[in-house]
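hey so u asked for the seq, here:
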Amino acid sequence: MEEESFGIREAFKREPEQTKFLIKLVLSGGLIVAVFSVLGAVLAGSIMVLPITLVLSLVYSAAVVMTTARLMFSGASRRYMESAMRSRTPGHAGETAAATPIAEQASFNEAYFMLRLQEEVATARREGREMTILAIEATKPGVEMNPLVAEKLAKEIAEIASNHSKTISHTLSVSESEYVMSLPNTTTADARSFVSEMVQSLGNYWCHFGTACYPADASSADGLVNIAREVVDESRQGRGSKSHAVA
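ran it, structure tokens below
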């Protein structure tokens, strides 16, 4: 499988309009600072020119850095969406054409969830607060997962998400029995309390759950989701204690 990389060169290729703007900014900004330095030295003397030139240089550098960061983020977000779409595209000749719309819908949901989660992590970082990712797997004791059970679980998870819209911002279905939720304004302690309430409301399910808190557990959207799901996997295999059976 071809490895994907992303850097400044790839960002320039993917965002030509922003690249042109960045080039213009670099050239015009550098020219303005240079012209001011020469004219200022002649007209105002070197003592006055030095601090003004320093301020102009700092403003110019900040503008270049912010524009480059915006270009990188925009390109990375677009690359993530393209990668998600490709990863869900049916790749076997035996698959039917009817599977394609389902794969595309799943790709959209995953890409949308992760892009929104990236924004929420950035907001939490900017505001200096915590946020939590919750992963939960629910199964019926002694009942094999089937379309009817999966549909019933999906409706119950949707009802929980709707009733707690102030706590849960977005929910992603990663399988018939596993869901990932973003709790953007929730600390670790708040998340544990919410999980207990959620497990009780699910009724007769065996639930494995995992939480990951920003910034204590991870500092990126991908990292938070991966850690929360790893805890679910550990619980499923009996290596963790984060599971509950509710009769």
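The first helix runs from residue 8 to 14. The helical segments are 8-14, 16-43, 46-88, 99-127, 147-163, 188-202, 221-236.
lmk if thats what u needed
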